[in-house]
Design goal:
The complex is a heterodimer of chains A (141) and B (377). Chain A has 141 residues and is an alpha/beta fold. Chain A has a single domain, classed as D-Maltodextrin-Binding Protein, domain 2 (3-Layer(aba) Sandwich). Chain A is built from 5 helices and 6 strands. The longest helix of chain A is centred in the N-terminal third of the chain and has 22 residues. Chain A is globular. In chain A, 35% of the residues are buried. Chain B has one domain: Porin, CATH 2.40.160.10. Helices cover 6% and strands 59% of the residues of chain B. Chain B has 3 helices and 18 strands. Chain B has a 16-stranded antiparallel beta barrel with strand order 2-3-4-6-7-8-9-10-11-12-13-14-15-16-17-18. Chain B is globular. Chain B starts with a helix and ends with a strand. Classes of the chains: A alpha/beta (141), B mainly beta (377). The interface between A and B is large, with 29 and 46 residues.
Chain lengths: 141, 377
């Protein structure tokens, strides 16, 4: 009986781990972006309008999804906030003349297409394949 | 009234198609909100709020264009009615060119929102807040047109302090600020017989320094504003020498939780010349503490306490203090539509009341219900 409970707990933990992994998002960037990794604080600063440049000084153009699970996971994992707080921050910047709202897309394929075509663009997706025309950025602490 | 309702209905009926518009890089955003006030005693903010008043409408359109990698230009227009303030005139909230050389240094020039305290520059962005009324001791809505923006320029940027020390954000500005003829100050002067027909104002300069600490979500900062005011009316004049207004604040935001606090000092030493010459001296001290929590994607609740006292006067008299306990709730129907409701428990009458709309005097305490519905794209 005890062994069965342990097995159930172990399977449950594995299930939760793989679900979290499946929900993780990949940072994607235009191939013109020279860096291959980006710090969490830079991701936060670029996607909240506080920074407009990557660590190497090149121009960053953040783009987002309009909504959905990938958008929410990205905001939670990388910005530590929900879509409502994210929207409120950008509204403050836009309506005070301190920033321009990032382009947002209804689908990941549209976002990736834009990132592939726009120098400096950086976004996120639940998965990418090699033919997508974008590069992935490793997120580091 | 009917025009306001028509405008609101028109914008709301277009909800399906009115997403933020982006045509070849030009972005168009905006919002419309309609408020309602009901107070148990006294008429607040020049409305007949003791009868219940819907005389509170805001409509804003914002156009901006990042015309080059480092250059953003834009303009924001507003039409608002708040009791007897505002009116049918379209006002320019801000109109500026913003050249950001890099993340460490940028220049913004034109009519620019004034960065001071936690919320001065964003106090009129209703869709961004849970609160219907921000703490009035620090951000009095009937005087906002004077404090919101200046014509001049800002320099701004960030200074990274290293991985373990966070980031400093700075903003310094200089220019001219003007009291709008439909603002609360003009009405207060009119109540004492000074009828200004030309707007008054003066030079302003100041700065803001905020430290984004290594503790994620915690920001600490301080601002200082120096402002002079001169104005001449057919029946008199007013002179306020350059006056320093400091502010200190902290905010913490993480996940569903938001906490903030601020302390401001507003000393005024003015000379008012009307039927006689008399000095007007005020030493306003205000502070607030607020907190909110997001219960779900659609629901956010919060509370704050706002405290204002004029230390230059008898602080036991209700006319010289204002203490306000507030509870708020916000419901987002979707990413565009929202509604808010807020209860105020007001003690003291130093802020938000006008003699002409309270001819029979003021009760020292009042309860107030505020409600708002809004749409933003």
């Amino acid at each position: 009986m005890k062994k069965t409970r342990c097995l159930i707990l172990l399977l449950g933990s594995l299930g939760a781990w793989s679900a979290a992994k499946a929900q993780d998002v990949v940072l994607v960037a235009n191939k013109s972006v020279q860096i291959s990794e980006i710090t969490d604080s830079d991701v936060r600063a670029i996607f909240t309008g506080k920074k407009t440049r990557f660590a190497d000084g090149s121009h960053a153009v953040p783009v987002t999804l309009k909504g959905g699970a990938t958008h929410e996971v990205f905001l939670k994992n990388h910005l530590g906030e929900g879509p409502e707080e994210f929207r409120a921050q950008w509204r403050k910047l836009v309506f005070t003349g301190q920033g321009a709202m990032p382009m947002s897309f209804a689908s990941e394929s549209a976002l990736i297409e834009y990132v592939a075509a726009t120098p400096g663009a950086v976004g996120y997706a639940s998965r990418i394949s090699s033919q997508d025309g974008v590069k992935s950025l490793a997120s580091v602490k | 009234m009917s025009r306001r309702v028509c405008l609101f209905v028109l914008v709301c009926s277009c909800a399906g198609s009115l997403h933020a518009q982006d045509i070849a890089g030009i972005a168009v955003h905006g919002f419309v909100s309609q408020g309602f006030l009901f107070s148990s005693n006294n008429n607040y903010l020049s409305m007949k709020s003791s009868d219940g008043s819907p005389q509170w409408t805001d409509a804003v359109v914002d156009i901006s264009d990042p015309i080059a990698e480092k250059l953003l230009v834009g303009i924001q227009l507003r039409m608002y009615q708040l009791g007897q303030f505002g009116g049918s005139n379209v006002q320019v909230d801000w109109a500026s060119g913003d050249y950001r050389v890099n993340d460490h240094f940028g220049i913004r020039a034109g009519k620019v929102k004034t960065v001071w305290g936690l919320f001065n520059d964003s106090q009129d962005v209703d869709p961004a807040f849970l609160w219907i009324l921000l703490p009035q001791g620090s951000y009095s809505i009937d005087h906002k047109s004077f404090y919101l923006a200046h014509i001049g320029g800002d320099v701004y940027g960030e200074i990274p302090l290293g991985k373990r020390a966070g980031t400093l954000h700075y903003d310094g500005y200089a220019g001219q600020a003007t009291v709008d003829l439909n603002d609360g100050y003009i009405k207060q002067f009119a109540d004492i017989g000074l009828l200004f027909t030309n707007s008054l104002g003066g030079k302003t300069y100041g700065g803001d320094l905020r430290w984004e600490t290594p503790l994620s979500g915690l920001t600490i900062g301080s601002s200082a504003d120096v402002q002079a005011v001169d104005g001449t009316a057919p029946t008199g004049s007013i002179h306020v020498p350059p006056t320093l207004t400091p502010s200190m604040y902290a905010e913490f935001s993480r996940g569903k939780i938001y906490l903030a606090g601020e302390y401001d000092r507003i000393p005024i030493s003015a000379t008012v010349i009307g039927s006689s010459v008399f000095p007007f001296i005020e030493d306003g001290r205000s502070w607030f503490a607020m907190g909110s929590y997001r219960l779900s994607k659609k629901v956010q609740v919060g509370s704050y306490y706002s405290h204002y006292v004029n230390k230059a006067a008898d602080t036991t008299q209700p006319a010289n203090y204002s203490k306000d306990w507030v509870v708020s709730g916000r419901y987002d129907f979707n990413a565009y539509f929202y509604c808010k409701v807020e209860g105020h428990f007001l003690h003291g009458t130093a802020l938000g009341y006008y003699t002409s709309t309270n001819p029979n005097g003021l009760a020292p305490t009042s309860k107030m219900l505020a409600a708002k519905i809004g749409f933003s794209f």
